[in-house]
Amino acid sequence: MAANGTQCTLIEKLPAVGGKLHFYAASEQGPDPAYSFRFDTGPSLLTLPLVFADLFAACGEDIRDHLSIRRLDPVARFQWADGQTFTLRAGRDALMDEVRRFAPGDVDGFARFLAFGKKVWDLSGELFLSKSPEQALRGDGAFSPLNALRTLAVPLRIGMFRKYAGEVDARVKSGRLREVLYQYATYSGASPFKAPATLAVIPHVELAMGGWYVDGGMYKLAEAIEGLARRKGVDVRTGTAAERILIDAPAGGGKPRGPLGVVRGVRLAGGEEIAADVVICNADVVYAYRQLIEPRFRRAYADDKLARLEPGGSGMVLVLGVKGTYPQLAHHTKFMPADYTSDLRAMFETRTIPDDPCIYVCASTRTDPSQAPPGCENLFVLCSAPPLDGAIDWATAGPRYRDKIVRTLEERFGLTDLSTRIVAEGRYTPADLQSRYNANAGSIYGISGNGVKQAFLRPPNRDRDVRGLFFAGGATHPGGGLPLVALSGKIASELAGEYLAGR
Predict the structure, then answer these.
(1) What is the 8-class DSSP label of residue 461?
(2) With bands split at pLDDT 50, 70 and 90, how would you rate the model's confidence at 154?
(3) pTM of the model
C-alpha cells in the first residue's frame, strides 16, 4: 500500500516487529556468560518463498539483495524409539527411494497421494490462496452467476468434504508412513482425522517446491520486510499497543442491513488517537473482535459466535543452548511417540498434556553454525499442547512437561546427558503465547482447520459490518503459516485499495 502511495502507520505491541516470527537470544546462565545462542521461536521453515519475492518486486526491489535462502535437504528426519528412521528428501527421486527403503509396498500409494496434493494446488492455489472468497466469486470483473458456479464447483473436485486422514489411509498402508503424512495437518492447527482432504496441498508444497531456511535465522525475513516498509515511508511504531479500533456510527443511523459503522482510526494504550481512513488489523481476529471493537459494531461476530470458533492446536516451546553436539540430529528431527494418535487426541479431544508427545527438534546449527558457539547446539524443541481452556495451570505444568520432554530425549532417543549439557534455556507455554501475541486461547495457528467451515470460511478479510476495516493474519483467510499470512496481507491491501479508490 505504501508503494502505491498510501500513507501507512504500523502499530506493534512488542519491541520488535514480526509477531510469532520472532527470536530468542540467550547466554550461558551464571556469573560468566561465555556462551551466546540465538533461536528462532516461531516458524523454522520457509515455504513458497516466491510469495515474499513478489512482495519485494511489487515495491520495486529484489529480495535477493536483502536475504539469502537455501533449500534444505533433508527437509526433516523422523525417528522412532526402536531406531527406525524416515528421511524426507528434497528431490523427488531421492524421496521415492527413501519410501521404497522404508515401506516398499507403499511407493505407488505415496506417489498417488502427492499427485492428489498437486491436483489440489493446481485447481485451487491461485483461486483460494491469493484471493478472498468475494474476489474469487467475481473473478477479474463484476460478479457473474457463471463465474460463481465455476468457483463453487472447485471444492467438490479437491475433496473439501472428505477427511484428510481418509485420503492418506486410502493410499498408504504403512502405519508409520501414515504418521509422517498425518503431521502435515497439524501445520494448520488441525487434526488429520477432522481436517478436510484439501490439506494434502501442504505436503505437496513442502516436498515439491521445497522447504527453505533463511541464512542468519528465520527472523531475518521479518527484519528484511521491516526495512522494505521503512524505505517505502511506513511509520513503524514498535512498543506501541493498540487499545481500540475507533468506529463512528454511519450518518443517519444506517439501514437495518447496512453498515453499523465507519472506521476512523485507532486509539493507543496511552490514549493517543491516530486518525485513519482504513484500518487493517493483523492481530488475532478473535482477540480483535473481543477486545478492540465495541460490541455494537460487530453484528456478524458477537461473543456467542466467537465462542463457537474452535482455536487451533497449541504447543510448548523449549529453547536449549547445549554444550557439545548431537550428530544424529538433522536440521529438523521429529521424534515419534509409540502411538501418534494419542498425541493428537490429547491436543484436539481430551485437551490434556500428552503422556507420550511427538517431539520436534530444530537444530539450525546443522545449516547455520553462526546460531551457536563453536561445538554447541541451539535446540528449538516444540511439543504439542491443547489450547487454553482453564483446565491446565501452566505455571506448574510447564516445568513438569519440560522435564518429561528432556528425559524422553535422553532415555528413548539417544540425546545423551542432555539435562546436564544445557547451559542456556527459555520456555514458552500456551499461556505465554496468549499474553505475548494476544493469541486466542494460546493457539499457534489461530482458528483450527478442523472441518470445512473453519478451514475455508474463516472470518473474512473485509469486515461485514464496519466500512474501512480489514483483517490479515493467520486467523483470517486464507490461513496460518508464513506464506498464507503474507497472502492475507496481499488480499487485505487489494480490498483496502479498492475501498479507498471508491471513496
Answers:
(1) S
(2) low
(3) 0.93
